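[09:14] KT: can someone run the structure on this one? pasting the chain below
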Amino acid sequence: MSPTRTTPLDEVTTEQLRLAGLALVSAAAFVVLFLVSVHTTGGRGIDGDVRAWTVHELAPLQPFGDVVRTTLPLALAALAAVLAVIALGRRRVAPVVAAGSVVVVSVLLARLLRDHLPRPPVGQGLNGEAVVNTFPSGHVAAAASLLVAVLVLWPRRRVPRTVRILAAIILLASAFGSVVTHAHRPGDVLGSLLLVGAVAAGVLLVVRGLAPASVGAVGSARSPRRRRA
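[09:31] RB: done, structure tokens below
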């Protein structure tokens, strides 16, 4: 019998399909959120109401938000840099490339989209100038992408559950800090999270496709196989 031929579809893993799906769903949700929260009257109204409630009802937490916005990106960048050095010392280049790509692409894309996506004004400033929203948030994009970088670069093969829970708490703190300090509307923050999700899934999909043997799961070294005696 002739050997069975392997098609490209056979080589696609469940993990790659999951990453591709996550990238597509996140990107689609980003577009829908932008259209609804920025370009519809109802969406802008809900966004503004949630922001106003947060700013007024949770005003005592504004100092906390200021601290989070100031220190969190720097702390995450320092931690990611340390983990990158450790990874390079172990010759784990692929996770470093993936982590760096997620941060750079996310931050640059958030800035470009914020500056160039067309949007109507949401009000007037004190001097009568038009005020537009800042969708997506650059601060949250930086913090979220750096947090992804930390998880990708984590030294162990499996990121501990406690670390993942702590990462989720940090992500929520970053999002909350940007809203409670008047810096962004909730839609801006959610848009950044969706943007980073799409970028991270896309980058990991590419890296795992190019270097499947160098890492088991990007961000962790493949455990050595024992040779049979």
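[09:33] KT: thanks! The mean pLDDT is 85.
[09:34] RB: yep, looked fine to me
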